[in-house]
UniProtKB/TrEMBL annotation:
It holds the Pfam family BPD_transp_2. GO terms for molecular function: transmembrane transporter activity. Belongs to the binding-protein-dependent transport system permease family. LivHM subfamily. Its main location: membrane. It comes from Roseinatronobacter monicus. It is a multi-pass membrane protein. This is Amino acid/amide ABC transporter membrane protein 1 (HAAT family). GO terms for biological process: amino acid transport. Keywords: Amino-acid transport, Cell membrane, Membrane, Transmembrane, Transmembrane helix, Transport. It is found in: Cell membrane.
Amino acid sequence: MSLQFILTVTLNGLTLASLYFIVACGFSLIFGLMRTVNMAHGSLYMVGAYVGFAVYDPLYASSAWASQAWLIGIVAGIGAAALVGLIMQVAFLGWMQGQELRQALVTIGLSIIIADQILATFGGNPFRFFAPDMLFGPVEVPIIGRYPVFRLFQVILAIAVGVGLWLLLNKTKLGIIVRAGVDDRQMLAACGINVPLVAATVFALGAGLAGLGGVIGATAQPMSLGVDVRFLLMSLVVVIVGGMGSIGGTALGALLIGLAEQWGQVLFPTYSVILTFVIMATVLAVWPQGLLGRKPT
């Protein structure tokens, strides 16, 4: 096994971890911080990808808008996922706070409805975005050789998302309100804060991140129906491993799962999926709150 091969597999794991991080960040905001059980997070990923592609495809075919089509598709994907997430929170989940089983059952039902509506509206054919010219093609990486520019862009985007969320949660008034709401929602409401509005805003932000991940994921590899279950499970595993509500923990969890998945496919492809859940079971046994999660007080 050459050094070039080892570094290539590791970099593949890092780029996969970047995609998992972008999607799981939204799940961490909704499930980890707001304590809302959203089993339709993978469906929001698909909504972002499909709506983004519905906007992107005709623009890419036109000579006037082809160069901006991908960016417009991203905006459309984020907006559509955020809107669906906002409707879910306001219409269904907002008045079920603290009823985890009820939220889980409702969001499972919503994920089935969303998948059926996507199939009825867009059909079952797979599709893929074409990255803009500046992110298209390979670039020379030391030791590894030629490597897709877009995959490196995924890593940079994930870092930007992580830094942005950390600043939002730790350096802004909204972040202070969100963290205070996790500890004591009743006290927050007594201080005059519109808690339902804050919850809806955070849910829409988390859903928008899932939509962003959908467009990025559909640019890196073909998109088809059924990926919602995969990304829901991966988001759940990443947040459990890293620690609920922790952006740093989500990044660490995504890194471990991404590397484990890539190296598992190389070393023992038949059992690579099991490795992911072995990591989750081990973390739960030793650190029940996750690697960087906050211990219960």
